[in-house]
Amino acid sequence: MIFTFILIDKPGTAELRQRVRPEHKAYLAAVADRIAFAGPFTHDDGTTMLGSLLAIDFPSRDAAHAWLAGEPFTQAGLYASTTVQAFVNLWPQKAGFPS
């Protein structure tokens, strides 16, 4: 089942996000074949980071939470809040995705 991760950064953590980003990307790469979509939330300027939205296939909610617990941004204390929700994709993506 796909689980979405709505992850909101703590204020003032831009430097922390940038510093830990290589580890975060490597951690994502380990599950790349199961990622439905992933990317940052930004302010309207399109560059200032607010958090992340991930949609990844896991066998269970427990597995999704275990993965999140080991995620480098989580380990570094970047997030002010985290939400994990089961997701059923009923609409083919068009906008915002490479063709």
Please tell me about this protein's structure.
Strand 2 and strand 3 form a beta hairpin. By secondary structure, this protein is of the alpha+beta class. The two termini are 25 Å apart. The chain has 3 helices and 4 strands, in the order E-H-E-E-H-H-E.
Helix/strand layout:
Layout: E1 2-9, H1 14-29, E2 35-42, E3 49-57, H2 61-70, H3 72-76, E4 79-87
Antiparallel strand pairs: 1-3, 1-4, 2-3
Low-confidence parts, pLDDT < 50 over ≥5 residues? none
Give average pLDDT, whole number. 94
Q: What is the CATH class? A: Alpha Beta
* Rg calculated over all Cα atoms: 13 Å
Beta fraction:
25-35%
Helical stretch count?
3
Helix content: 25-40%
Structural class: alpha+beta
Provide a compact summary of the structure:
With about 100 residues, the chain is an alpha+beta fold.
